[in-house]
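Retro notes - structure team

What went well: the batch runner handled both jobs without manual restarts.
What didn't: labels got mixed up in the shared folder, which is why I'm recording both outputs here explicitly, each with its sequence directly above its tokens.

Job 1
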Amino acid sequence: MVAVPRTLFSYRPYWAQRFGVAPVLPTTRAEMDELGWDSCDVILVTGDAYIDHPSFGMALVGRLLESHGFRVGIIDQPDWKNANAFRELGRPNLFWGVTAGNMDSMVNRYTSDRKIRSDDAYTPGGVAGKRPDRSVIVYAQRCREAFGDVPVVIGGIEASLRRIAHYDYWSDKVRRSVLVDAKADLLVYGNAERAIVEIAHRLASDSPNLTDIRGTAFIGKREGFSELDSTSLDMPGRVDPMPDPYAMEAERAAAPCSTGEAAPAEKLIPLRPRKVDRGKQVIRMPSFEQVTADTVLYAHASRILHLESNPGNARALVQRHGAQDVWINPPPIPLTTPEMDALYELPFTRQPHPRHAQDKLPAYEMIKFSVTILRGCFGGCSFCSITEHEGRIIQSRSEHSILREIESIRDTTPGFTGNISDLGGPTANMYRLACKSREIEAACRKPSCVFPEICDNLGTDHAPLVALYRKARNLKGIKRIFIASGVRYDLAVRSPEWIKELAQHHTGGYLKIAPEHTEDGPLTHMMKPGIGAYDRFKDLFDRYSKEAGKEQYLIPYFIAAHPGTTDEDMLNLALWLKRNKFRPDQVQAFLPAPMASATAMYYTGLNPLRSLKAKEPVHIVRGLERRRLHKAFLRYHDPANWPALREALHRMGRTDLIGGGKDQLVPSWQPAHSGGPRRGGRIQPGVALTQHTGLPPRKVTDSRKKSKLR
């Protein structure tokens, strides 16, 4: 039984509450002086420019701590070359809070081809290079140099996804937990509100113990725990086995949505039903040294981590790094609706810090008129980090709170013209969706509630979301409410009324949607639904758009080079794109983000979604040349890709797809201006690249200026 957590706003305020609410959290000593502060209780360091908007993690954490009476300063995008910038606000009384920002710094700085990006959406003017590689480590080190006696707490998505030993795509090796490399006192993972408030109040009361806080990791150990050793794979047989971390107690295994593959019955050793206090169990994972040396154990550790992710039944984890243990407490308890409401209604200005007022901040421009209505995602896509970071349990705000925020945007945000750019979150249509049984939800260990099929225990009623949309668009002064968050279309087809509302009132001509692939092999390894679900959604979307007299189009997203994808899979996807008259411009290749299940597949060549006893192999696309080929299949219409595609088709024995026929993929000739060898005629600029798109024709004056589908 998981203890009921303390309500987020039930703490007695810290004495500094007498200073009141700051217009903006101070970023300089002069701003502190204006507020009458002699010091900050907490200083937050971030790789993003400070924007006082609830979509930005540092603003959310800063305003939350302020509501508890703490004086919070922010050092945003500091010069990390030395510690001087980290001394700007003086010594923090309680702790440093360090994050790379809203994005992982390596994803922010590098493409999937490991090339440096030319821009940074979280920096004024979109300028690149304002944050270091592995920002959390660098910032934490500078905090130590500035004031070495102050505790350092690291968090945000970069720290969250590196809490255990993890494969690092950019250095192509397994790295230690970021907690070890940053030499921090504590790591906060996931949505950090409960943990960060508890940490602040304990440090303010001189409480020395910070080791029992959910959603945190530290170097050390806790007493009173029974240890399950899972540093090697269990082998069926007649000898006593090592404790199996995949096994569950009898009563939990009987839950309707329980998971875990079973070996043949005659090889299983019966487990004795017994009552176990999971809250006093810790699983010892394979050590850093073991997962570095053995890819099977790396995949095994990844599987353990993902199975122990449900706050209702997760056990603590411990992983050895040399002579040190990294201890990871169970995930945080999700926020309730009243807590979510209070959090998002804190006194944000919803604008960049005044010193950035004259600069364009691309990330802010994208979200300044958006409203977060939910957190979490139970999709469990293997390549995505949302579930690992925010959890799979949906946390929703109340309808009244959301409507109040829309009215606040209307009344107070400069430049508002009546259009809300998004009502959403990680997913557009998971608002108020949850398991029908709290007991089943607490026992479940499935990584996804919708794969391979939508769980029978999952509530899929979209009626509350439809009602919210209708009330929001009928508010005075609101012209349009757009939906820009990703649509989970396999859920949406369960609610045609929601698709109708979306198509007829909340789509501006184009709707981005992410089937990711068409073939079963890659889709299975992505944990995504089959393309048939996309087809059903498209039929309904097109029908309701036509009923409203609107010409609207779906813009599908696809991933190249994902684990489990063969050249034949990409060829079939390219043929599907051509049949359906899609010509994507920008395309994305799989980027192995730390801790994702798909990243474990990429590194190990094994499938951690299934028991590692089977050692199920996964086809991996390695090397820049093959990754580029898979991207070329997505952009089959680009003449620059035709030579590579022709070569691949010859190798695959599919020369029947080379030619000028409508059922063929690439022509046998090459335009002179494309950079490849010329074979016959020439493409007419502005014609060949705009026909057959399925979209309204656009004037194109050069073959490189294609109509954008992404």
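Job 2
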Amino acid sequence: MRSLQSSRKKLHAFRDATKSEKRKKRGAPSDSTRPDAEAPGQQTRRESLREYARWLWPYRLRLIVVFVLALVTSVLTLALPLATKFIIDTTLPETIRSRGEKMSELFFVCGGMILLILISQSVDTIRQYLMAVLNAKVIFRLRQKLFDRFLRLPLSVLSDLKSGGIVSRLSQDTDKVTGLVQMALVTPGVASLRVVLTVVVLFVLSWQMALLATLMIPPIVFINVIWIQRVRPIYRAMAHDREEIDARVTETFGGIRVVRGFQRERREQRQYAVSHHTVIRKKLLAEKLQLVVSSGWGFLIPGASLVIVGFGSYLVIEGRGTVGDIVAFQMYAMMLLHPVSMIVNSYSSTQQALAAMERVFDILRRPIEKPDVPDARETPCPVDEITFDSVGFEYREGLSVLENISLSVPAGSVVALVGPSGGGKTTLTDLVARFYDPTSGAILVNGVDLRDLRLASYRSRLAIVPQEVFLFDGSVRENISYGKRHATNSEIVDAARRANAHEFIERLPETYDTVIGERGIKLSGGQRQRLSIARAILADPEILILDEATSNLDTESEQLIQASLADLFASRTTFVIAHRLSTVTHADMIVVMDGGCVVEIGKHDALMGAGGLYRDMVERQQSFAAGGAGSGF
């Protein structure tokens, strides 16, 4: 294992890598800069934007209402500086009007402004609520569609994505994509509208002072762009570091027995501390840059105000302006700062949202698992025969896993798949379950190619008890009835009895309503396996696949379950994968596989008499058991 770097060295390495990346971006020529070339990433982004526009099309009227309300709010907001100018220039100066008339005018103007502020805030609140509703509708629809697509993606795609990639797309990426409406359309649109209206009003009042006010915009943009370019890589690196820390924590406590068994607590503690300290150093670096930007703002705002006051005073002295103009310009100048900053910041957020959008729509564009062919038919009922016609399979091109498998399995047969590890037994049952399709040959059900049957129709006739049992964080009852959601209590109990699970369930604190925890962590391995068998029994399938289903059971429980499964096998076609060969001696057909090929087929007695690989495996296991070395192959 590599020696741990200090957090200081990690920070220096990060800064060097960032500088090197910037130099490469400045110096490396790119074909995408040519006018006649378009990078594949740009094409993908445009395609994703078009898809996103189609997603938003049903909500176009709501978006129009949001922009109209934003326009109303912006116009009403602009009235406050004008009212202030009116009070200073008209109400306050000495005139022939009486004190009472001035007070009436002051109360009238102030009351009107209070009313406008209330209306403006109410309209803006309605706009924000409508935007929140729009975001909620889009995110719900998008997340549901994405989850549905994940459920139907091929297993090979899901294994490449891993659980972390799936969760991040369903949570973080969809949140960012939903915020794209706000960040890419609403925020810059409303901010730009406010900037334009403010500048127009400034030029109407005084073009000279308007020029001074608009001169603030380039420095604001420059400061924000520099801030974004410098800080964005830091925050991105911090997010990546936190992901690694979280993953390491999950891994550490998932293997806490190994950690303690090898006395690695100190190392794990030090690695956790160094990783967190690295994040803190990066955060302090970002804070330092933030202080530099803040000092720039601290100089710009008072400096701009001083220039406006100074030049405005000059205009007042020359008789080309009023005190109200100076105050109004001060207020309008401040009103320019926030929307300009919003426009620049929205650009950065939009880039992150666009990257998330590409990740989301990349999943939505992927084809689902085994889409039904146009003329797909329902699965024949009953299933009379399953035939393997010269079946071959490759997970990757050129890497053969199964070769020329030919079998004929009559309905109701118990087929035992045995052989050395890596022989292709599980892969063959994956083809039966149609998790994958053969790369050569075909699997036929009553003479019909499995690929010509509706997948949902076929899977409804199938149940699987996997080697690695998976139970959900729910009650015992919910886990047993997972394949038959409307099962009665008597049916659930009967399935548990037949799987030899009823007795231990009755000893649980709340019997069938006991919550068993994530992956059934509150149960032993044998108990989890028996619940998995009960789940398959309750589903009452025509085709049953048992992948070493009794491997986690003690000898007594295994014998009881084998006896109870005999009735289950009698009425359905069953494929059993077993390394403990004593459990398959009564199978109707024993298929011996080695190296992806079928090397022997027959019943137990015939195979023992043939003196081949099967007999060698049986005798080896018997000698291990007699010598105390345990059983299993």
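One thing worth noting from job 2: Strands lie at 385-396, 399-410, 414-418, 440-445, 448-449, 462-465, 543-547, 573-577, 589-594, 597-602.
We'll revisit the folder naming next retro.
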